[in-house]
Amino acid sequence: MTDSIIMYFKRGANQKALEISEQLLKEYSAHPLAVEWLYGQGLMYKYNMNELSRAEEIFNEVIKKYPEH
Q1: Which one in 25, 42, 43, 64 has a CA-CA gap of 20 to 30 Å to 17?
Q2: For 20-51, how does the pLDDT look when each residue is reduced to its tens digit (9 = 90+)?
């Protein structure tokens, strides 16, 4: 599934990439890659969608949920 996120991200299909990563986070929140999925959402919002406030919210969530990263 991570490959699907990357594929959609590269194609500029941000909404689909976000949907997949959100689904993964809901189903596999304890997975070692969960921090990467969430961080990737922040990157998409910041660089691909220019939604800086939403990106900041997600980056703060990454810090809160995964302080060791």
Answers
A1: 64
A2: 999 999 999 999 999 999 999 999 999 999 99
Separation between Cα atoms, residue 44 and residue 42, nearest integer Å: 5
Q: Where do the domains of the chain lie? A: 2-65
Nearest of 54, 35, 53, 43 to residue 14 by alpha carbon? 43
Dihedral of the CA atoms 56, 61, 66, 69 (nearest 10)?
0
CATH 2.40.128 assigned to domain 2-65? The reply is no
What is the sign of the dihedral through the CA atoms of 15, 20, 23 and 25?
negative
